[in-house]
Amino acid sequence: MPSLQHICEWISSTSLSTSIQKSLWAFPIIESIHVLAIALLVGSIALFDLRLLGILMRHEPVSKIAHAVLRWTWIGFAIMFLSGLLLSIAEAKQNYGNLAFRSKLVLLLLVGLNPLIFHLTIFRSVNSWDLAPVAPWRARAAAWTSLILWAGIIIAGRMIAYIH
Amino acid sequence: MLTLFRWLASTHFSIALNQSQWAFAIIEIVHLLALSVSGGAILYFDLRMLGWSFRSQPEAQVARALLPLAGLGMLAMTVSGFLMVASGPVRYYYNPAFRLKMYLFIVALLFHFAVQWKVSRGDKEGSVRTVARLAAVISLLLWFSIGVAGRAIGFV
Lengths: 164, 156
What we know:
Chain A is mainly alpha-helical. Helix content of chain A is 78%, strand content 0%.
């Protein structure tokens, strides 16, 4: 069975990867999109988290804020995922051993679990606390976890370029 | 202006930033974290103006709720941005992408916050939709260009 390192080396040799590497502008353009879409994805998530914590729009129902940001969160996620995938393909070989890149993947996995748990548990009873200016502690815990994990992802993401 | 940038470069503060191994990376991270906050708040105000989000809430209310977040985030972006420039002022002075970014930034700052401030006061309630939409599109284009110009600083 080929090792993960071999797979990454193979990805680096594909025509998609080499064409991004060879192009002068492809990488910076994809990277710009990836960075700017942070505002859309993390901004949407932060807005919802801040509502749960009672910092923002505390007099609006939680479900209303969830509804307002949901579509844009998914659009932001799609842009981040695709642009991030292309950047990873372009630098697969270098990224394989990069500690920041590895940390980012682990954090992404964790940040995916957080809303899953949130929606399967405390958010099911949202009707009973929809109008509460500050959400119950389990929802607040999810909000803090989300904010901290996303900050960690941004930090790890930026560090990919600094450590080799 | 060049004199000012040269003077900044000669300060202990600037030299320390320039020599530190991790200062720039940390400042850049703060800049990005602040982007997610201010960018998100600005984006949702514009989306509301376009009628693409928070439709059931009055424009003035959305503008008011998002103003502190947009303002504080922008303050953090400005401070971290200034620190980046302070790490190598003369290099930035001669960078065309940086100049473009600063001109666009001044225009966007005045334009966007004037609009959001005015809407938050409720003066614009029930105003012409086309005007609101146009203002949102101009704001989005300006901020997007600033982001692209900002990324270009490292490449030109």
